[in-house]
Amino acid sequence: MNKTAFILTFTLLTLAAPPARANDPYFSLCTDIQKARAQVHTPGFFKTIWDLLRLEFAPGSVVRLQESHVVTPPAEFIAQVAPLPANAGENIIFSIEPPTDVTAAPDFAAMQARYKALNARMKHDSKSLLELVKPKTLAGCISRAHKIKFDYAAYMKLAGDYQALHVVRQAEDAKDARKAAKKALGRVKLRWTYFPATDLGTVFQALRTRSVRNVVIISHGMSGGKLVDSRLNEYPLSFFSDLAPNLESLAIFACHGDETVGTYKIVEALKSFPSFHPQRMVIVSKGATLFGVPDSVPMAAFPSFMKKVDQRIRKLQKSAARARPTSWEAPKALCAATFYGLAVTQGTLGLVLNGKFIGTVDVVDPANPRLQFPCSWLDRSKNILVLKSLGLYDNAALRSLDVTAGIVYPGHEISELQLTNYFKPGDHAYQSSKFTFGIR
Q1: What angle do CA 221, 225, 227 make, to 5 degrees?
Q2: How far out from the chain centre does Cα 219 lie?
Q3: Measuring CA to CA, how many Å separate 285 from each of 229, 247, 260?
Q4: CB-facing half-sphere around the CA of 271: CA atoms within 13 A
Q5: What is the pLDDT tens value at each position of the chain, 440 positions in all?
Q6: How far apart, in whole angstroms, are the C-alpha atoms of residue 64 and residue 74?
Q7: Burial class (CB in 10 A: 0-12, 13-18, 19+), 381
């Protein structure tokens, strides 16, 4: 095509495009698309090919370790014992696989079949939506939408149905995680145990257990550094507020992992509790921009990440073996929160006392739980114990709202706990409960 013909053709196409009018059914959709195009960088062809090659042949180059935070607890917090030998204590990798009570549910197979069908439809309809992203002008987008007769309402309903099957999608992601973890275990020198789920209660207990030494968490990460467990519950901000003295290191492999340390104040937590180690460490993943998405952490990069974590821990242990132990302040007494009439029928409840996370209760836990915490977390004047739904998608539900609670504090008398329940506006779904009490 010569230059004159090209200009003529371009002019005719431009004149044929309908003007962008606010009353056009596609005006709002195309306006949003044009705004998104201005904000999101779409990689070019060669950049896309380069990203695919990196994932295939050098996945370890995609994710690097954020500079390790090596923490030295105060001298009075370090145990006066000989350094632990390198093989003492458990090393655990927690992954993102849905818990067995979810995947073993009678309707899970049907959900998988529906997910497969919806996934195929989503891929087909997403190609149509992509056609609306290609035009660089609002008028061009509207013209293309009329031409292909794109049904945006039907697409959004399909997307909603697809999103509702998030547990099945997570199970698909878990297959990649299992494969990557198996590969990683062949590259490390310390003995590691692979645990397929990262539900809050299990991880929280591991971090408080005297037998666990090093923990790696594979997790979904959100912008801002928030973590999501294998039941799709958000980790509360005070989740890392009670760490056992045996814990030597914590590593997190997740998108936005570099933001996690500050969001959860992990360094401060490692400094604030008695330790059997002269130094402790936290390591997080630092992702890269892949296919235009910043801070991506593909599962294929986990074996390389895990090998580096294992190396850092062994180096830390060699350094600790040369350190001199000093004095240590014994841990304070433990108190407990007890509940009567508390049974969860859906989702997960997180329990927070005076801003510090003390545990979870979900559908697989027995009714009327008892959760321990350091007595130093109690306040002489006023205390607040909150039970809050943690689900990213689903709200927790209780068998009954007639719940009573008690606090066990040896040698002290607790005032009666006053209960207030809170519900979401609109659908009035259960949101949280709050107990307030004092100490006499």
Answers
A1: 45
A2: 5
A3: 17, 19, 10
A4: 9
A5: 443 333 333 333 333 444 445 678 888 888 887 776 665 544 454 444 444 444 444 444 445 455 556 666 555 444 443 344 444 468 999 988 776 666 777 787 888 888 888 888 887 887 787 788 788 888 898 888 888 888 888 887 887 787 777 777 777 777 888 888 888 899 899 999 998 877 888 888 888 887 889 999 988 888 788 898 877 788 999 898 878 888 889 999 888 877 888 899 888 888 777 777 778 889 888 765 544 555 567 787 888 889 989 999 998 888 776 665 444 444 557 889 998 888 888 888 888 999 888 888 887 777 788 888 888 889 888 999 999 888 766 778 888 888 888 999 988 888 888 888 888 777 778 888 899 999 88
A6: 30
A7: exposed
Q: What amino acid is encoded at 64 in this protein? A: R
Structure tokens at 319: 């350094």
Question: Encoding tokens for residue 415?
Answer: 């005032």
Tokens representing 303 are: 């074996």
Residue listed under structure tokens 């309707």: 107
What is the Cα–Cα distance from 404 to 407, expressed in whole angstroms? 11
Give me 324's structure tokens: 């001199």
Look-up: residue for tokens 């993102």?
96
β-bridge partners, 404: 340
